[in-house]
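Pair request: fold both.
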Amino acid sequence: MGQKISINGRDGDFAAYLAVPASGTGPRDVPGIVVIQEIFGINAVVRGVADWLAAQGYFALAPDLFWRLQPGVELTDRSDAEWSQAFDLMNRFDPDAGVEDIQSSIDHLRVTQGVSGKVGAVGYCLGGLLAYLTAARTDADATVGYYGVNIQDRLDEQDSIAKPLMLHIAGEDGFVPKDAQAQILAGLKNNPHVTAYVYDGVDHAFARPGGKNYNQAAADLANGRTVDFFKQHLAKE
């Protein structure tokens, strides 16, 4: 179990969920990872990702990026009303401000006692787009994005990506059509820092436990690649 903390951001303080490695997992001089939310806020799924990363030996911090709109959002994907609220929040959300908050979260982790100084980020859905922007705009040491939406509209930023970025793309993503996927792959293929995997036959949010599109085989494959990626790129020098 993690704890709720406060982060000092550019525009004010905002809440975050911090999960720490369990005692006995080794010396407390390990990397940190910022967990970037979906459109449902810092809900049980996002906290579960942070707890999973903590079990892998990382400090994992999930900032509340909707705090300017509505602090403390915790929605699920189980009702039409919650979907409607989530889409409303997403449509009003400012990604540029969100990336600033992610940088503040990275800064917070870097000086957290027990963190080695290496900090990565991982995001899902809306957070997948923000992960891409994090790789382009922040000083994160390594970043992973799962089924990011609208990356094809931001390909002009790919030249700014100078540290490792891994993207997991759902081959049958209902929010990222085939033509958008093709644009993303073509637009990023010449950047040596970017690795992209396409998971055929699975839909958006294939790695969300309990979701209607959850696919354990694809999720296990993507999560295994994520773990290996962070082990490689967040190792202490």
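--- second member of the pair ---
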Amino acid sequence: MFSVAFVLFAAALGARVIDPVVNANMTAIVVLSMALTPLVVLVHRRLATKPGVSMEGIEAVNGQAASVLVIGFGRFGQIASQGVIARGASITIIDNNVQMIRDAEAYGFKVYYGDGCRADVLHAAGAHSADAILVCLDNKVAATRIAELAKTEFPQAHLLVRAFDREHVLELRRADVGFLVRETFESAMSMGRQALLALGAADEEADEVMEHLRRRDAERMDLEAAGGRFAGRALVLGNQVKKAGAQAAAQDPA
């Protein structure tokens, strides 16, 4: 389209339909349009209203009551729910990911739509009568918000929260969460134990080592809670070889 404009301008100028000034102005306008068109398209794509997600077949949580409420049903929530289901406990599951809700149904799960960060949604999900609330989200901000709501609004329930990392653990501890677990900690500890067995350690030795590491990690967490992120750094076992002099000084700090 722009190339046609240049041809027409040249023809009009040659036929003296337009003068050189008009030709220069119109050419400048076309060039400017060529430069701005990609930007306009990009802005339009960003600002244009995106098609809404279909809620067909999705049931919003409302008036549910169960002994266990699971909030967030990704991979973590799916595994965490298996124990209480195996025991025969009644369970309500909520999530705000429509596709995940549809996918879970294919595996025999009934998951209700709901935003666990809202107190009214938690009430609708039966949090006020639940014995246990499992917060299984992978969103640190949302998980902390739900934990704070649950501690205030539903003190009768045992609160169990998935923590994203060490910093999130410290944040949840400040929110007085009764039980929390770092999402990769237990799996990493399990692999570490298996590595010891692969090196020839007996079961008893492997268990003793891993228990020692758990105590060190708990002590490190307490230090970090009191003194900041690096307060427990000395309790981390590193693989950097220390110099003999430094080792001797550490053993005999005269």
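Observation on the second member. The longest strand covers residues 158-163.
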